[in-house]
Design goal:
169 residues; mainly alpha; 73% helix; 4% strand
């Protein structure tokens, strides 16, 4: 398994244009939420816990992020819990037939990817996941780290990424 820095540097090489990064602040959260939405398929309920593929995915991703870096993993776990809670709320409060529920999730997923591809048009590079499927897992972490950089946090990590992936444009 690559280290946190290796994964972020590899992903950052596809994301140096500030406009592309800005589109990721919208596109990736939409995609992550849409995936949780689409995977919110109740399988079994034990006490008050409803087990869904979305829950299993969130737990697996949380464990992965925690193994990469405990503090960032804890933040990612919290964010995934919020996404899962949002998907659950949408599911439980959906006023229409569940066919429309899933079509809504597909629509959000589609919009998220359109935003992503607009950003990659600005970048002039293909998305990172085309060369490494792990880019789909690194993308949400990259967005969170970029927000932390904007807040003036994780300066050492930011400098490492810039030194290895190149400056922002």
């Amino acid at each position: 398994m690559q280290t946190l820095q290796q994964q972020l540097v590899s992903y950052a090489k596809y994301h140096r244009d500030r406009r592309n990064i800005a589109t990721h602040f919208f596109g990736i959260p939409l995609i992550v939420f849409a995936v949780a939405w689409l995977l919110y398929i109740p399988i079994i309920q034990i006490n008050t816990t409803i087990f869904t593929p979305a829950l299993v995915t969130a737990v697996i991703l949380s464990i992965y992020y925690l193994r990469l870096d405990f503090r960032l993993g804890a933040l990612m776990s919290l964010l995934l819990a919020l996404v899962y809670t949002g998907a659950k709320a949408v599911y439980l409060n959906w006023p229409l037939d569940h066919t429309w529920y899933y079509l809504g999730g597909v629509a959000v997923f589609f919009v998220g990817w359109v935003v992503q591809f607009v950003g990659h048009y600005y970048e002039g590079k293909k998305p990172a996941f085309v060369d490494d499927i792990m880019g789909l897992v690194t993308g949400p972490l990259f967005v969170v780290v970029e927000v932390l950089f904007l807040l003036g946090l994780c300066k050492s990590l930011e400098q490492t990424i810039i030194a290895q992936a190149g400056p922002y444009r």
